[in-house]
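Fold this complex.
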Amino acid sequence: MPAAVPGDPGAAFQRAELLVELHRPGEAVAVLRSALAGHPGRADLWGQLAMALLAADRPGEAYQAAATRIQLAPEDEWGYRLASLALSAMDRSAEAVRAAAESVRLAPREWRTHARLAHALCDAGRADEAWPAARHAVELAPTEPETHMAIGAVAIELKRWPAADGAYRQVLALEPSNAAARNNLALVALHRGGVTGAAAGFAAAVATDPHVDVARRNLEVTLRVFAGRLLYCQGLLAALLWLPLSAQAGQFIGVAAAVPTAALAVVARVRWRALPVAVRGYARSLIRGSRRYQAQAVLGAVSFAALVAAVGLAAGDAIPPAQAADGFALVGTVLARVVGYRGLYNR
Amino acid sequence: MTDPLVSSLLAAVAASPDDIPLRLHVAGVLLDRGWPAQAAELCSTALQRDVGNAEALALLARATRALTTPATSGSQAGPEPEPGAQPKPGAQPEPGAQPGRGAAAEPAEPAGAAEPATVAEPAGPADGGPAEFDWTAAEEQVRDIVPPPMVDAGAGAGDSASPDDVQSATVRLADVGGMAAVKQRLEIAFLGPMRNPDLARLYGKSLAGGLLLYGPPGCGKTFVARAVAGELGARFYAVSLADILDHYLGDTEKNVKAIFDTARRNAPCVLFLDEVDALGHRRSRIGSGWSGMRGAVNQLLHEMDSVANPAAGAPAGVFVLAATNHPWDVDPALRRPGRLDRTILVLPPDQPARESILRYHLRHRPLAGIDIPAIARRTDDFSGADLAHLCDSAAELALESSVRTGQVRPIDMSDVEAALRQLAPSTGPWLQTARNVAMFANSGGEYDDLLAYLKSKKLV
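Structure:
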């Protein structure tokens, strides 16, 4: 049985690579630091260390490791690419672009350098310049999922939703277990207005890789958008009915107001039932676990009840109470929207 | 120990372990005859059985003072009495003496002790407080005062065996504290059919296939696996990720085969694959890095099948158990019927289990007024490893206090309370990921038990 040679830098490199794949970057860092103590001149170990540190969300140390690799192997593109990644993670976008550009200069036929440059330019707010870089990466390696991920990222920045959608679908065709692509595809769907599809997409991303918690957080935001839209419609209806309910009463106005109110209830139910079962369960758990969401749900439900009461009172010739109930519905709906509002979605 | 009277008294204590007055009487005799370490041990045991016993506490203090004096007072107090030697009058320090101070400056400080100046200074607030406390020196000073300062969690059970180290399993399920649900499930899903193969066949229950234990880290999966081996009367052969990385790096397919061959040679044998998510990682998620892992998974599948259906003449009796913190990362093919088709969720210990674990980790330490049930009630979601850490932390606080004041005292509830304020259960991140799985990746119902647990904790 072949045994690893103690202190063998090649074995340490392999171990670290595996540990990073297994979501154990901290252990990978320890393995590499131990190996580097005996082999400080091994550029490959410094590069792998930078990778592990990036995976461990320690970009400052990763940058130092990448810089050491650049010193040891100045003509190799990997060090610059790693440095660019670390710099982007530290929000030093201009330097990240310079490092990525240097990697492209050193290896113009390597798709990874172009993909990195595209991401770095995106992070620096230069998405127009990133597009050609991403296209170049795809031309060099059309079957490599990461090149299509770069296209998708740039397309999102440029708000080219069909291109982004197509890029992420291409990634999933090449690599169905790519949770990041599923997450970003759902993000594109959310941008294009498809709340139900976005919710299903985020749920699928979490199911594909439960370690990717950003998809779950995105799902929470999507559900807030879902609730917000329902409340928006409810508030709009209450506002539109306020004048008619103030001026007239009787069976005709009651029926006229009841139709859109009932339609709203039906649409809300249909949209809710269109959400995947897991998403509905998650929505319920969110409400159970948050006083803010509980308040939103109660306010929204009470406001809708007030709206229904207003319509019923108007149908019974009670103009002032109907007006008051409708006003209550409007205020309650606005309050519910305010209470539930919290930030924008995450990427 | 050659004194016949003492030997007889110790025999009497062994025969009547619950006789506290006898135990304390013998402790007093031992103290008088110059065996403070043995006396301290007897006092500690007495305090475990009768927390807060004033006589035991007084004797323990005497014993620890006797132990402290020669080791820390240098030439003024004289040498440590050898076992059997008569204690020297005046060897004990005056009440309130600072045993740590003078000794630390002595040139004869044992090698490895901390800088004398650091030890000589009391850790008062003006000196920087406990943050600058020198633990190495402190432990060196009181090393012999209290019984074993640390007890490893499940010593000999939680450690990963060397890959060629096939051990006989001596642990039984009865040795596992609490975990009634896990034991019951083990009996139904695994042990019962194994013990009654004819009955199992009568009901069409296949004996092939292994068992996958999953749950948060530090909750005793390895210990349970070892206990299963003990129940089956089989040898125990544990292989962990560290073994794979440290010993088998290279031709992984051959290495996996070699592991199973070793298990077959030692049949009946429980082959325990620890961290099976590493060895049997989802092939769809294995990147372009170490491609050898893909071959390892394929080989593992082949070996699992051959264990379930041994060829003619091949030895049977290899039971495959596996453990993982992340069953969702295990290749689905490994969990198909005939392979690791039975799963058991090993959760953070329940109240009775927590009490057992706490008693285990405190059993050799001097205690006073420790309310084990109360601690267990306040440590919901703590893993076994967290509980061990809690005990260690409480002991450290008592130790620090003893060294600072020069008065050795047993661990009390204030130490535990302080340690509890500093610690949080380590199971949180696992529960977060588990929540994602239970809510979004449970369409087949394979994580229903996890979902039920999370619901009971109001996490979903």
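The CA atoms of residues 182 and 299 of chain A lie 34 Å apart.
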